[in-house]
Amino acid sequence: MTLLPEPWLKQLEQVLKANILDFWMKHTLDAKNGGFVGEIDNQMNVVEGAEKSLVLNARILWAFASAYRIYKQPEYLEMADRAYAYLMEHFADKTNGGFYWMVDAQGVPSQTKKQVYGQAFVIYALAEYHHAAGREEALNTAAGLFETLEKYAYDPVHHGYIEALAADWSPTEDLSLSAKDMNVKKSMNTHLHVLEGYTGLYRVYPNDALRGKLTLLTEIMIDRIIDDKGRHFHLFQDDDWTVKSDIVSYGHDIEGSWLLVEAAEVLGGEDLLERARKVAITMAEATLEEGLDGDGGLRNEMEAHGLVDRNNDWWPQAEAVVGFYNAYQLTGEARFRDAAAASWNFIEEHIIDREFGEWYWAVDEHRRPLANAPKVSAWKCPYHNSRACYEMIRRLKETELEGAQ
Q1: Which of 96, 297, 341, 398 is the most buried (most CB within 10 A)?
Q2: What is the pLDDT of residue 308?
Q3: Which helix (H) or strand (E) holds 109?
Q4: Per-residue pLDDT reduced to its tens digit, 123-156
Q5: At what angle do helices 384-404 and 54-71 cross, to 10 degrees?
Q6: 131-162 burial by CB neighbour count: b if 16+ within 10 A, else e?
Q7: Cα distances (angstroms) measured from residue 199 to each of 73, 87, 284
Q8: Residue-level pLDDT at 184
Q9: What's the maximum distance between 2 C-alpha atoms anywhere in the chain?
Q10: What is the tens place of the pLDDT at every residue in 251-261?
Q11: Phi, psi of 369, rounded to the nearest 5 degrees
Q12: How far, in Å, CA of 299 to CA of 308, rounded?
């Protein structure tokens, strides 16, 4: 049995505040061009001229809005305000609606396509910003962006959402999310984070149309995107849901397991919630059986012939803590609690950067940090790790309260 980190709550809050949030406040403000720098390497050198991504800026807004909602410290609101102002001034497409995928170092749009994944993170961030600080204009923008996605990105024939569209929302052949992703019409990753964005929005905007689409999306995730054994997500599919890849992503599986339950809980329907809970337990079991190393590290990806990537990236470790603990809360089974604790211990021992702050991008199979991976980038953001801390702090406090009753 893996010993629970002691005291776990104290560790989580210390890592959240001193290691993650403080790092972003001290090191990432772009004093020259406004907003936040686009990239910092692993030796803490700012990469001059790096593009600034929609994902990075939306996730900064979400992380610090959440911090302010929970702790009410004014410096967290200042960071959220800065992220919101930059997002609206430089990423918002004031002609066609929606938000550009990339801007250059000076804030000029450089990649203007409308990646639906990015729009979802804007909805997620704006909803949280409204939740934290009562910003009505942010809520109105999020609600309007929901309507825009439903108008242009929703597939009325096969359902679900197209990966990307051009700046004017017309079809585009440039669909892929990143260099490592397939150029296909639909992906698990986009649907998972549209689900997440819509869940966050529904909390503060209980609109009937949004409820219907969030319900349908939850059902799509269960019926179309999870395999027929209920163990893994299909990562890439055509518009008619034809599967295009057999890669398993353990980080996405364990992340999706708890996000599906969260969506169903927010919606409140008992039948859908029961389906989501069943799926979450099965996916957590599969991840525990196949994806977890003996020292608590979660593997990245697997194909039929074996592991594709022997590194342990930072974000699957964060998701493992929450996903396994969610399965423990659903079942009461100690093996899931122990797996969550083992994953946190792995983070503490191998992933947290004790010298500069924040988390390493990854460690290799010998548990050495990757020397050339960035500390801040288009994808390296204060999202998975801060969210894991927020979730676990909340869940551990709930467990304590339940135990005291």
Answers
A1: 297
A2: 75
A3: strand 109-111
A4: 999 999 999 999 999 999 999 999 999 999 999 9
A5: 30
A6: bbbebeebbebbbebbebbeebbbeeeebbbb
A7: 25, 21, 21
A8: 97
A9: 58
A10: 999 999 999 99
A11: -60, 140
A12: 9
How many C-beta atoms lie closer than 10 Å to residue 292's C-beta?
20
Q: What pLDDT was estimated at residue 405?
A: 44
Q: What distance in Å separates the CA atoms of residue 122 and residue 223, rounded to the nearest whole number?
A: 26
Q: Is the pTM of this model over 0.90?
A: yes
The span from the CA of 260 to the CA of 276, in Å, is 6
User: Which amino acid does the sequence have at 353?
Assistant: D
Radius of gyration of the chain (CA): 20
Element (H, E) at 39: none
Q: Which residues does the chain have with pLDDT short of 50?
A: 1, 405
Q: What is the DSSP string of 344-402?
A: HHHIIIIIB-TTTSSB-SEE-TTSPBPTTS-SBSSS--SSHHHHHHHHHHHHHHHHHHH
Tokens encoding 148 = 């825009």
Residues ≥6 apart with Cβ < 8 Å to 384: 314, 315, 318, 319
